[in-house]
Design goal:
By secondary structure, the chain is mainly alpha-helical. The protein has six helices and no strands.
């Protein structure tokens, strides 16, 4: 589940969802939090069911090193964004700028994993971050920035996870169908 990326996509999607749901109070927020938890658990259970335990296989040394470098740079940029935005007293910009960085990090990962489809969540996360900046520039409330960035980023990551699981399920279905025909 984690070798295929679905576990990471599901859990980080939940983190973004929780950020977006923080724009609400009371019962609506509780419902959104529960819904996000259900989606995350559902994706992880589906991954466990449909993805082979070896999905993704072990990383070759060079690929693992490149993956670690990309993620290291991503986390350094996230820390820098948080520090600079706090220093400039614009903490509202932290989520949108982080969404852009996370989106950008998918671009080299698409090459590392030879998965061009990772460009889709890259574009969606960058667009999510840009939308958050636009809401901020339009003097939208902080909650609206969190809502736009959080929910759209979550949906982007969860959609990618669901796409991965659906592809594995289709492959398993075709494999099972072929075995029955023999």
């Amino acid at each position: 589940m984690f070798k295929s990326g679905v576990g990471f996509l599901a859990l980080f999607g939940l983190g973004w969802w929780l950020l977006g749901s923080s724009a609400f109070d009371g019962l609506p927020r509780q419902v959104l939090v529960v819904a996000g938890g259900v989606v995350t658990v559902g994706l992880m259970l589906a991954a466990r069911r449909f993805l082979p335990s070896s999905a993704g296989g072990p990383f070759p040394v060079g690929r693992r090193r490149r993956f670690n470098q990309i993620n290291g740079i991503q986390w350094l940029l996230i820390i820098a964004i948080a520090a600079v935005c706090r220093h400039l007293e614009v903490p509202t910009l932290i989520p949108p700028l982080i969404a852009v960085v996370v989106g950008l990090h998918f671009l080299p990962l698409a090459a590392v994993f030879e998965q061009p489809r990772l460009r889709i969540p890259a574009a969606l996360l960058i667009a999510s971050g840009a939308a958050g900046v636009i809401v901020w520039l339009a003097n939208g409330p902080d909650g609206n920035v969190r809502l736009v960035v959080g929910l759209s980023s979550a949906l982007s990551l969860w959609s990618m996870a669901a796409w991965t699981v659906a592809g594995a399920a289709r492959a398993a279905e075709h494999g099972a169908g072929g075995a029955e025909a023999v």
